[in-house]
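Throughout this chapter, every protein is written as a compact record of paired, labelled lines. An example of such a record is reproduced below:
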Amino acid sequence: MKRIVNILRTLDGEEMEYLEKFLYSPIFNENERLCKLFLELKPLFPDFIGLKKELIFKAINLGDKPYSERTKQRICNSFLNLLDDFLVFIERQRDKNGEAQYLLKAYMRRGLTNNFQRKSKAEQKKIKKIEIHDLNFFHHQYIINASAYRFSIIHENRESNALLASTLDALDKYYLLEKMRYTVAALAWKYIVREVVDYHFLDEVLDFLAKDSVKDSPLIFLYHQLLLMYSELKEENYFFDLKNMLKTHLDVLPIYEIRQIIGFAVNYARMKVDQGKIEFRKEEFDYYVLLLKKKALFVGEHNVFTYISPHYFRNITLTAIELAKNKVIEFDWVENFIMEYRDKILPPYSKMVQHFCMAYFYFAQENFQNASKCLEKIRNIKNDDFIDSFYTIYFKTLILQTAYEQKEWGILDAEENSFRQYLRRNRKITIELKEAYKNFRKLIVRLFKKATTNPPRAKLLAFKKEIQQITPLRERQWLLEKIDKSIDENGQKPKLLIP
């Protein structure tokens, strides 16, 4: 029953009414019990509060048979299968391109020559009028051209050579765009997770695109730039070239493509920030503002969903906080963003991400007591409810930083040990990322010891140099701020020894 309710909750009111018609159509369903089950569930839509499965199945059971778990399971499985059929039906209704493709296939199979020719010509005219040449466009153009080519071969039409050329052209563009999209994604993820991907034909694709043969498509042009950017990470000019290209083509790109391309650009900027190039943080923030302006942050297709990815929400908050700390923007911007968009976070993770972001916000403003309260709320969340292992790492990192700021040596010692064990067992993150957090974990313990003793100034300066040089390292800027504070305070007042 839980699986049924989870699906029904995703429907809107109009779709729920449509489902009822679907269920009562003998073409799709002839099981009376499924109709009765729907009628019992319908009054509980959309929240399904007070759902009592025993009473529901007693109401739909035909005859006077007692409640049976086996009967209930059989009805549930049948209803789930019907729901799956309904979801497929809905998606097919939305896919007008697919509808035309299946219709041409049906005409060809049934030998309806005139019908095929009329529909094929009509689709060709539609294609010529489409201004946005995205992946769906090239795929549809390829399928329609391929259908027309197969039809011409069957009827020995001499125009088949021209159709073959247009079919190959559409296929090339579809393949190139799809190939680049997934290759860029794989290259970007390579620096985040431990995953080996074989990049077949990458050199051939780059050589082909270097000839400028398909740059009439803005999307292919932009993804080519992304591919160059991730293939040659040290060449930062590709990043800024992409930024200029986006300004030119932004108004002709669909929202989901804007989100995808900017997402890759943001990941690159974050990578550069992690390498110590802090100037890329403002570049990252500017892209986030652009996504907000274009309303391109919301995930989903066909404008069905209006939720922000929890990763985007957290990254925007943290990037803005860092800029606010350096007086580039105001802290008011950060607070306004959290308040305005917190209810738009993907529901399963909304509370956890809100607690994370408010903990970061309070921490940045040195309100460590409130930061600790937010972290305690996160601690009460089950590990299984964390989005992924990265959020566990973020949580443990901030716990250590907060313990340091509050001079809680006992907490810092215990959490550092817990963090060490977690990193040792984790097999999902890259070795480089694991090493970066391992270095942070070691340095914060040493930093605390130096902050609570009174070492010579020369030792503090040597430790600062070590922080500056060690790589990879997370939270380098924060560690440097803390050691600078210790250097400034050195000799001004006696330090308490660690108890």
Remarks:
- The radius of gyration is 29 Å.
- Residues 96-175 form one domain.
